[in-house]
């Protein structure tokens, strides 16, 4: 009981007192109400992930009230004429019911599907932003790992959901999964029989996937999101390199009111986007596909986008990759898809630790890297994105071939080529671009920004007028972290361990090509030089050499 | 808040020897300077919120007015109107809130200092003390017998939780090697789904260049018809005997140029549904494995490795096409035990 505070008199005051004396609400408001969030569009990607997840949970919950996750067969007698009398599972029938008979059912169903597509997309792009800005560095490595878990779970959530309506496409997707599982050496056949409760398709799979889809996976996602956000609060958000931003502060908007208003408003915008897509763009019209039947299939059908890259790998891998050891099959043509997917997740998980080891960098980083200032990381990231896109486009190889009037086989050969060389080319090009941009930054910091104004000097030479940067704009061009190549070091006994040799090699690979940031001395020298001989305009565009006439640069 | 405000010292600001110039001066917005512009934004925000209310009304009205089940077009109309209403209702709130925050709320940037994530020296010392005390009071270090048996018990305890999953499904047995096809089973036309009375096929029903999708007539015999269909689906093609390149061992597996092959792709199991008449190639629509029907459906392109298994056929005394036996090779995707029979 609180005795020291005066009795509240207003209604709001009474309510606040009630809440405070039961849950310490004032402490919460004091702690979080003025927390600072840096604002930048790229920091909204995590929010889009969060909001689309919430929307998917809301719409999905509604769907559970009407969907029957069961595979008992019945004959359709609903209003959709083309399917009347057709034998189908309860799952498929209830999906038709939701789509045709339930008021608002189709809208909610489409919102659930669009929301899921947006969710996986937002998570992926959010992850790329965290990668390219180096936000995964100490102290945020663990949160990056939580993120990797969320990424994998978002794929799982999508796939299990896609399979539930038991239409022709979803059943076909499951059949492919069954084929992949059977390719697993030693235990594959058993896993397949245990998953499907016997032979494919059986009568158990839908209800089992349902449990995963509506309970296990969302529960895991919610738990990880909670940890993820607690970490964001504990670490405080990173910020872009900008005048005023340091490793020891956070500059931005307070939660109350600005960030909350923008974030809350943004939630409604994401919601509106999903509702708008669902109102005007049809998604997964299962009534066109018919119930699952193992025999027919239509060409040119596409899986949901995030499954595409796995499907693409299955198309790109040639059949000779399946081989036999004493008669036991090793279906590398299929397993390669699993290996790449798991490999990508593992590679992502170890990256923060790998990079810190290579750079011998154990410091905390709260100021982000501009991607150009970490050329090797950026190039590796772009190479990965290109590799991913090659696999992803591979899943549409047949459509692309039709579009370009090419033979399907040639198309696959092109994808096989790009699978190996696409990332390499992307790596080289990206690294060159980053280094070029860094040189440009250096130029601009030294000589100012090009104004596009050309002056003719008395002796006939033309020069372009450069406008010097104010210190605030110059800051992010000169103040960045730029690790150097640290060759392998000997230990106390004068020996270089194998691991250290490797670290040295990686360090060379990462940091050998480097555009050093400007030192203070260089900058001052340039300014002295510019003042003596250069020609500048101040912010009003007036001549700055004091004599009103241009000087040779 | 003021307690968290932080004056930054210059050594924290320096990078590469450059001195951080600090936050740029705040530039006032139009709304900060001109009251009439401020009032205009105020009205705009309220306008967005009104739009939202109209959207909600549209949603409710269309929900009550349209019964979607009556026709396909009504279903589409209902979806569009409900969706439009929801979009406006949400958009109005979203845009309104953001316009408000951006133009009317304080936009001064605020600085907060970062604190060490780790505990203080004192926190650490006390934490170590607590752990030590726990170790002491439990005696876990002094009593290895208790500790080791506990570890062993904990390691074993999850096993039942693993073992119960044994009940998820039956063991594979020889299920993947057997289908409903058997000596004398007649070929029936696959008309989609599981037909009540499968229509049987005679040799003369199959013309050159055509492809017939086939299931066994006894499709209802298994426990679950879809499982059986998923293994037993067959493609029947009639090819000019001159073009057919038959292995002498398999010469009597076809009948009068009619050959039967499993429809289940040996890659990961899609139905191989596309037949090119000119080339006699079967193409799997899933990952484009291509099989040559004139050469025992060997793979000529794509990710599959094994040829499609052939079903030996003939005709019975009444002229119906029948199987001579089950598939000699297992159908569908490769699995670990595939060569154990
Ligand atoms: C369900 C999926 C996810 C949700 C809901 C989510 C949500 C968020 C939110 C709201 C933030 C703060 C705002 C921002 O920086 O964008 C954030 C930050 C972060 N996320 Fe995620 N995220 C998800 C997935 C991921 C993934 C896949 C990764 C990486 C593998 C990741 C790594 C991070 C990291 C390291 C931060 C801290 C960034 C910083 O402080 O700059 N997250 N996340
Ligand atoms: S399932 Fe036929 S090619 Fe993959």
Automatic annotation (TrEMBL), chain A:
It holds the Pfam family Cytochrom_B_N_2. Signal peptide: none annotated. One of its GO terms (molecular function) is metal ion binding. Residues 528-539 have a biased composition (Basic and acidic residues). Residues 528-553 are annotated as: Disordered. One of its GO terms (cellular component) is plasma membrane. It is an enzyme of class 7 (translocase). It is found in: Cell membrane. This is Cytochrome bc1 complex cytochrome b subunit.
Automatic annotation (TrEMBL), chain B:
The chain crosses the membrane at residues 45-66, 81-101, 145-165. Keywords: 2Fe-2S, Cell membrane, Disulfide bond, Electron transport, Iron, Iron-sulfur, Membrane, Metal-binding, Oxidoreductase, Respiratory chain, Transmembrane, Transmembrane helix, Transport. It holds the Pfam family QcrA_N. SUPFAM superfamilies: ISP domain. It comes from the Bacteria. PROSITE patterns: RIESKE (PS51296). Residues 231-322 form the Rieske domain. It is found in: Cell membrane. Belongs to the Rieske iron-sulfur protein family. This is Cytochrome bc1 complex Rieske iron-sulfur subunit.
């Amino acid at each position: 009981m609180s005795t020291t505070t005066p009795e509240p008199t207003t209604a709001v005051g009474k309510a606040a007192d009630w809440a405070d004396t039961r849950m310490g609400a004032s402490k919460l408001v004091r702690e979080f109400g003025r927390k600072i969030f840096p604002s930048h569009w790229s920091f909204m990607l995590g929010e889009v992930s969060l909001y689309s997840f919430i929307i998917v949970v809301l719409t999905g919950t509604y769907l559970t009230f009407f969907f029957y996750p069961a595979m008992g067969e019945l004959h359709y007698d609903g209003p959709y004429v083309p399917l009347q009398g057709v034998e189908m599972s309860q799952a498929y029938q209830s999906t038709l019911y939701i789509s045709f008979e339930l008021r608002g059912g189709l809208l909610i169903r489409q919102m659930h599907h669009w929301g899921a597509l947006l969710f996986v997309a937002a998570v992926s792009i959010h992850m790329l932003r965290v990668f390219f800005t180096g936000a995964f560095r100490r102290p945020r490595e663990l949160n990056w790992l939580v993120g990797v878990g969320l990424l994998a779970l978002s794929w799982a959530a999508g796939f299990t959901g896609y399979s539930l309506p038991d239409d022709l496409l979803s059943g076909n997707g499951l059949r492919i999964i069954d084929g992949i599982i059977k390719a697993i050496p030693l235990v594959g056949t058993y896993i397949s029989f245990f998953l499907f409760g016997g032979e494919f398709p059986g009568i158990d799979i839908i209800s089992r996937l349902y449990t995963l889809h509506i309970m296990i996976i969302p529960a895991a996602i919610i738990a990880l999101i909670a940890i993820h956000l607690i970490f964001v609060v504990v670490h405080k958000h990173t910020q872009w390199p900008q005048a005023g931003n340091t490793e020891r502060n956070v500059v931005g908007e307070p939660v109350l009111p600005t960030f909350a208003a923008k974030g809350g408003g943004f939630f409604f915008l994401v919601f509106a986007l999903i509702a708008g897509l669902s109102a005007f763009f049809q998604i997964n019209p299962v009534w066109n596909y018919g119930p699952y039947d193992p025999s027919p299939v239509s060409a040119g059908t596409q899986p949901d986008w995030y499954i595409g890259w796995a499907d693409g790998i299955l198309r790109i891998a040639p059949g000779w990759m399946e081989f036999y050891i004493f008669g036991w099959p090793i279906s590398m043509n299929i397993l390669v898809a699993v290996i790449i997917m798991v490999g990508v997740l593992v590679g992502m998980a170890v990256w923060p630790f790998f990079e810190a080891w290579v750079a011998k960098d154990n410091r905390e980083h709260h100021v982000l890297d501009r991607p150009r200032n970490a050329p090797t990381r950026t190039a590796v990231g772009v190479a990965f994105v290109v590799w991913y896109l090659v696999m992803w486009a591979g899943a549409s190889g047949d459509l692309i071939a039709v579009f370009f009037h090419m033979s399907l086989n040639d198309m696959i050969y092109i994808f096989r080529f790009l699978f190996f060389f696409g990332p390499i080319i992307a790596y080289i090009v990206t690294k060159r671009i980053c280094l070029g941009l860094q040189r440009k930054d250096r130029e601009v910091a030294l000589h100012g920004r090009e104004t596009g104004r050309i002056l003719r000097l008395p002796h006939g030479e033309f020069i372009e007028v450069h406008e010097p940067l104010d210190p605030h704009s110059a800051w992010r061009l000169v103040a960045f972290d730029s690790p150097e190549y640290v060759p392998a070091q000997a230990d106390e006994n004068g020996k270089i361990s194998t691991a250290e040799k490797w670290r040295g090699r990686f360090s060379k690979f990462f940091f050998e090509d480097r555009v050093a940031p400007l030192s203070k001395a260089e900058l001052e020298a340039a300014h002295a030089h510019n003042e003596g001989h250069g020609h500048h305009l101040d912010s009003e565009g007036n001549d700055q050499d004091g004599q009103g006439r241009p000087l040779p640069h | 808040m003021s307690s968290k405000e932080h004056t930054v010292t210059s050594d924290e600001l320096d990078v590469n020897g450059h001195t951080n110039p600090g936050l740029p001066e705040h530039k006032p917005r139009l709304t900060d300077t001109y009251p009439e512009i401020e009032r205009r934004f105020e009205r705009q925000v309220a306008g967005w919120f009104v739009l939202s209310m109209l959207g909600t009304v549209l949603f409710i009205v269309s929900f009550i007015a349209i019964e979607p089940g009556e026709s396909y077009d009504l279903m589409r109309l209902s979806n569009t109107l409900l969706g439009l209403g929801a979009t406006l209702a949400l958009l109005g709130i979203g845009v309104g809130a953001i316009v408000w925050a951006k133009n009317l709320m304080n936009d001064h940037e605020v600085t907060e200092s970062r604190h060490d994530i780790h505990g203080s020296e004192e926190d650490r010392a006390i934490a170590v003390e607590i752990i030590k005390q726990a170790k002491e009071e439990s005696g876990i270090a002094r009593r290895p017998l208790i500790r080791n048996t506990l570890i062993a018990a904990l390691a074993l305890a999850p096993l039942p939780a693993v073992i119960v999953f044994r009940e998820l499904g039956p063991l594979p047995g020889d299920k993947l090697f057997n289908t409903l096809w058997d000596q004398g089973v007649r070929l029936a036309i696959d008309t989609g789904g599981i037909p009540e009375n499968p229509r049987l096929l005679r040799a003369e029903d199959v013309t050159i260049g055509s492809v017939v999708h086939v299931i066994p007539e006894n499709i209802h015999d298994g426990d679950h018809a879809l499982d059986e269909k998923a293994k037993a689906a067959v493609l029947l093609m009639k090819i000019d005997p001159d073009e057919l390149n038959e292995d002498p061992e398999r010469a009597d597996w076809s009948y009068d140029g009619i050959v039967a092959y499993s429809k289940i792709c040996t890659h990961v199991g899609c139905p191989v549904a596309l037949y090119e008449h000119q080339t006699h190639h079967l193409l799997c629509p899933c990952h484009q494995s291509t099989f040559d029907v004139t050469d025992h459906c060997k793979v000529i392109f794509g990710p599959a490795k094994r040829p499609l298994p052939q079903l030996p056929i003939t005709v019975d005394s009444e002229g119906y096409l029948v199987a001579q036996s089950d598939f000699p090779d297992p159908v569908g995707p490769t699995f670990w035990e595939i060569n154990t029979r």
